[in-house]
Amino acid sequence: MAEMSAGQMSFAHVKKKRVLRWRNVAVQGAIAWLALMLVIAILADRLAPYDYAALDLRHRLAAPIGFGGHVSHLFGTDELGRDLLARLLISIRMSLFIAFGATLIGACLGTTLGFLAAHFRGWVEQVILACVDFQASMPFLVLALAVLAFVGNSLLLFVALLGLHGWERYARVTRALAMSANTQGYVVAVRQLGAGPCRLYLRHILPNIASTLIVTMTLAFPDIILLESGLSFLGLGVQPPLTSLGNMVGYGRDYLTRAPWILVPSSLIISLTTLSISLVGDWLRDRMDKTLS
Amino acid sequence: MTRFIMTRVARAVLTIAMVVTFAFVVLRASGDPARAMLSPETSADAVEAFRKAWGLDAPLWVQYVKYLLAVVHGDLGQSMRDGRTAATVVAERIPVTLMLTAPALALNLLLGIPAGIYAALKRDSFTDRLVMMVTVAGFTVPSFVLGLVLVLAFAVELPWFPSGGAGSVRHMVLPVVTLGLGGAAVLARFTRSAMLEVLGQAYIRTASAKGVPWRRVVTGHALPNAAIPVLTIVGLMVGNLIAGTVLVESVFSWPGIGSLLVVSVVSRDLAVVQCILLLVAAAMIATNLAVDLLYGMFDPRLRDTRSAGGA
Lengths: 293, 311
What we know:
With 293 residues, chain A is an all-alpha fold. Chain A has helices spanning 6-47, 84-120, 122-137, 140-151, 155-163, 167-182, 185-192, 197-233, 245-252, 264-288.
């Protein structure tokens, strides 16, 4: 740095600052968007102007307001005259609910298996690692399709299935971190004091590796949204009369030219939400944990 | 080297065994295929006859052993929908799907890697920002949405390409572009960060300091070292490509493996789904093996030492 002239230094400094500021704006925007989605998800049924399944057969395929539509259906209607704003709000709730549920299941399962592998080592670890390799080597969408079609489809099962996506990431991370924690002073001390494995892992090691796990969760969350919407798009995810964002894109595709307003808002929301979570996840990773990349 | 190959083969066999077992457990134990295949009004006798005909009346473990033996002998069962062997049904779709995936993979590599390298070399420039912005869009927009946008733009508004079906080169354009762009975005981001990592290393500074021209530093020192992480991600991307194919084929009604999988799943055609699962597993194993061999090409250090448990 010493041989850099003052001018050069300030130039680099300003440039870096500008990049950072730009990034801050993007992250703030992303957080605002996610907050909005969360509010919508919580209050969906109060915000919705109609019941999401209510038919209005006289206004089928009505355009949204501003495109020749009427105030009574701000976002237009679909082929059965169901209000698209109401459906959109409920879909956001459904998609977020599924993604939250699935992420939590994946995190719990993966973390538990990671701890088990780190604690028992030996063949337990080998079996878990073999499963991790298997999971990582098969495209999950294909596995999920097989399970869904043959086990049938209920909402709970669907959430549980998506929960199986990504568990291997938590298992890998947890195993590695727990193994290194096991050699550290605080763990040795707690063990010497006579703490059992449950207490040791849940009360002492878990809080210490939580930041990494949270970052892993934010990185897995968009994947789950994309997976859910992809499966629902194929007609194999959330089943009618329930609705999700992918579902709306799926049936909107049949009206692509006649009524593009069915699929455009839901497509945009999927994209913006995954984008926002990725931005926030990257930002969190840089702030909380630089070891993940 | 022998040990290396042996471990790889053992892993491959283990993965295949897990897929076979997975298929059996999920597909057989989860419900009664006879009830699912036949209409609800079918008489109990007919259901029983169907069960007998397909060997569904035996105890589960007998079915499992029989199934394993059959798979080992290359007999993957018959499609319950049209009675032909599942292998035939799947095999005739393979070239159709490869017509999409091969050009799409080429597009991924030819677009993603140069874009990533360029962005890394011009770090923080306008081009870098632009490339990064486009790539963010590329992997947050789901492939089926991108496909529909392309249909709307280049099949409906501008009637340049057909919106679906197969038959000519023009039919291939939109699905290949849809598949190619998403992967290219992921690859570009990853290549960029791998390059940046390498460019920050001491040996790059040493090379520049001793007067090696920058072009030589990049091609001779930076690129070969960045190739290894990029290669890893290319291996993983093949999996994404397969998953993407399922969605994209559905968007463009492309009669390949992906559409076949969706149709078979909807009609609970056990044998065909199993066959596709095995095919996908085999494709993934082949990819991983290829990636492992290529590692040795790019990094001489890995040639001999990489004996046990890499991946």
